[in-house]
């Protein structure tokens, strides 16, 4: 039996180690058993940091979590329907607890054979061998590796292998999970598993999955470090149709994804206003750039994207061509015009425009927008306009807007100039 205590000490912080010991102590006290499982164990062997800690409890995970949270002065969020909970410690370590999946739970100490079968059952329902290893947290066996399906062997061979032939039928989201894991770890999906994936794609079993679950997997793909390689591999499996029936791999997409990384890198280093951008949405917009407006809407609605996400995707899809043409033009364009073109867009859409713009002129104008125009404010404030007798409303907004445009174009330099113009405008109906 391999003991991984030393490896655990190398990879986990001291407080995480103490916490895992505490889990073992409490589970003993409650007559339960506790095991570290899934990605955390896999990544321990790959020396990759994994801050998600998943623990399976042979016993009532919610009762267990409540006790742990009480003792640690932590916070617990429970999902009674699933028998799971998440405990967050005062040091912000987050642990997910699940009850070993089995209809009836038999107290471990009483029946050792049955005791183990419930945990083994749980592991055997999982997706891939590399994800079905566990580490015991129980007294006397703390750190012992439990590897019924030779996950270790597959890690050594660098391969992704389904635990059983029905893995993708049980849960078709595993098609995307498997491909994502393959590319993230630099492994290969072994031939039999690849055939199972192909078969389940041909049979379109993924259509039975609830859309939000598929959406979450698509998001996870786009949130990986190098999503293009995963998308390409999904395409090799002819599985892009899981995302959208008309989705095709655009031949420039690899280059565009790289350009998106560069644009976001530039934005993070240079934009004075640090509004964080959702890079996965930019990749999504790029992926959908050849899909019609209706097709994009279909995707957004089917996968229940949030309203804000939907608006961002759609705004890009509708207007990008027109805006880019103007921005790339050689003729002089006033800053206020650039501002008016880009300001209504999300930062995500603007960064995608920057990525796909082939012209340095266009890119430069977008950089100027982020750098200068977007943060520019008028010297006159709302109260100055109110003092001129203008009430809040469309006229008021229009006056502020017109002053800003003149300031962007370098016509006004002082507050007095702005105020004089405001006085003129206040008398007119705009
Ligand atoms: N799992 C599964 N089938 C799924 C999702 C998850 O069998 N469709 C199992 C796997 O054993 C996985 C564990 O649940 O390791 C935890 O899932 P999750 O946290 O989503 O994945 P990780 O493997 O931890 O991967 P990541 O590093 O992406 O978080």
Number of strands: 9
Mean pLDDT: 90
The 3D shape can be described as elongated
The main sheet orders its strands as: 3-4-5-2-1-6-7
Strand content: 5-15%
Share of helical residues: 40-55%
Low-confidence stretches: 103-116
CATH topological fold name of the largest domain = Beta Polymerase, domain 2
| SSE arrangement, N to C | HHEHEHEEEHEEHEHHEHHHHHHHHHHHHH
Assign the CATH class of the largest domain: Alpha Beta
Q: In angstroms, what is the radius of gyration?
A: 28 Å
Ends apart, CA distance between termini = 81 Å
| Ligands, ions, cofactors | cytidine-5'-triphosphate
The CATH superfamily of the largest domain is identified as: Beta Polymerase, domain 2
Alpha plus pi helix count: 21
CATH architecture of the largest domain: 2-Layer Sandwich
- Give the class from helix and strand content and strand pairing: alpha+beta
Oligomeric state as shown: single chain
Description:
The termini are far apart. The protein has helices spanning 5-11, 14-30, 39-46, 61-72, 112-124, 151-156, 167-170, 173-185, 191-202, 211-222, 227-236, 253-270, 279-287, 293-302, 307-328, 335-342, 347-356, 360-371, 382-386, 394-408, 415-427, and strands at 33-37, 53-58, 75-79, 84-88, 94-99, 134-136, 145-146, 159-160, 188-189. The protein is of the alpha+beta class and 430 residues long. The protein has four domains: 1-157, 2-Layer Sandwich (Beta Polymerase, domain 2), CATH 3.30.460; 158-243, Orthogonal Bundle (Hydrophobic Seed Protein), CATH 1.10.110.30; 253-373, cca-adding enzyme, domain 2, CATH 1.10.3090.10; 382-426, no CATH class. A hairpin with a 4-residue loop joins strand 3 (75-79) and strand 4 (84-88). Helix content is 55%, strand content 8%. The chain is built from 21 helices and nine strands. The chain has a seven-stranded mixed β-sheet, with helices on both faces. The site of cytidine-5'-triphosphate has 13 residues, from helix 8.
